Amino acid sequence: MRDVQKEIDELVKSKPVVLFMKGTPAMPMCGFSARTVEALKACGVGFSAVNVLQDPDIREGIKEYGQWPTIPQLYVKGELVGGCDITVDLYQRGELEPMLKAAAGESQTA
């Protein structure tokens, strides 16, 4: 039997920056995912994306995993940062880029 929570946990912990979104960074399938991708791309730090539309189990499971009811969900260093509004707010306040760069830098040296 599939353990979706374990799969999600491994995804979240295997990469420094992971975005669970509707669609892909090249073709977001909702406005909230598109705005989140724009903020991440503007920071110039690579990130991994998981298209929840391809897997209904992941789509529902991520809501339970992060105790967060909506998608997208951004994880940095295994921790939930939040959804679209929080991510865009952090970007606008200049806090997102240093957070992402620190996570990316740590992953390269670890």
Low-confidence stretches: none
Integer count of domains: 1
- Helical content band: 40-55%
CATH superfamily: Glutaredoxin
CATH architecture: 3-Layer(aba) Sandwich
**For the record, what CATH class applies?**
Alpha Beta
What is the helix tally? 5
- The count of β-strands is 4
Largest sheet, spatial ordering of strands: 2-1-3-4
Structural class: alpha+beta
β content, as a range? 15-25%
Q: Largest sheet at a glance?
A: 4 strands, mixed
Model description:
The mean pLDDT is 94. This protein starts with a helix and ends with a helix. By secondary structure, it is of the alpha+beta class. It has helices at residues 4-14, 31-42, 56-66, 84-92, 96-109, and strands at residues 17-21, 48-51, 73-76, 79-82. Helix 2 runs parallel beside helix 4.
Topology, please?
Elements: H1 4-14, E1 17-21, H2 31-42, E2 48-51, H3 56-66, E3 73-76, E4 79-82, H4 84-92, H5 96-109
Parallel strand pairs: 1-2
Antiparallel strand pairs: 1-3, 3-4
